[in-house]
Write a structure and sequence with these properties.
- The structure is a single chain.
- This protein is α/β, with parallel strands linked by helices.
- It has one domain (about 15-284): Spore Coat Polysaccharide Biosynthesis Protein SpsA, Chain A (Alpha-Beta Complex).
- It contains ten helices and 15 strands.
- Strands 1, 2, 3, 6, 7, 8, 10, 13 and 14 form a nine-stranded mixed sheet that branches.
Length: about 280
Amino acid sequence: MLYYFIMELANDIDIFPVIVCIAKLEHNYIEEFVLYHLSIGFKRIYLFENDDIPTYAHILHKYVDTGKVYVCHFPRNNHYIKQDNQNHYIPVQYLVLHIFAIEIMPDPQITHVAHIDIDEFIVLKKHRDIKNFIREYIKDDCAGIGMNWRFFGSSHNIDSPTQSVTQRFTMCGEKGDKHIKTIFRKDCFARFDGCHTIKTTSGHIKSTDGTIIEGPFNKNAPIDVVQINHYKCKTLEEYRYIRTRQRADVVGQAQEDVDNDFKKYDINEVEDLTARNLYRKMRA
């Protein structure tokens, strides 16, 4: 028994998964996002704050003080990087990923990286924490796992955000969405390929069923092992507010029909209590 405990402890030391994310107008939701993902085993969260006035370091001070969260105030819009002696304008989200890859990812502690947004929660269906998931699936010729979205709707709520996201919104799509976000091995990383996946130096991005994934979509969308709860719309009031920030993954001002988009993402077909129950256990 002691032998297996020591071996598991050694494996945990070897695995240091982190999250990189960008946030704007996420003050009501940021602490739940941080607490949830630290509780499932992520060692550190690198948060690029895109708000004009810095506030997240204050909200998250107890996590910042212990080194669990690094906050970088980044009040920029679309910017550029210089390549081949030319300036290439890129969306702020891609600029953040570029800076993270160049300046932060070389940290020798970091072994695995997930890039997700604040309205996305990684939900493990068969593992108690992300390290156990990594040990089982991200090995051999697997450079990373593409985790499919599952859209969560308003659950017919019209209230303001007085409770946590995972508690308020439990109704979702019956099936997973084709979009993925990727958790990957640092030693296989070549570059970010948009904000959904990466290009690899070796190995493949795969689904948990072993299917090789090319690009940002996996149409099979398995959600039996892992899924990303995508709380995109929340309530109509909240969605209208959050969309005032515009999009971080396009250059310039995006034309959005906010109320019609809300109807598209407000999917309430079945109930999924996995994240709700896990967060209640954490808080208890």
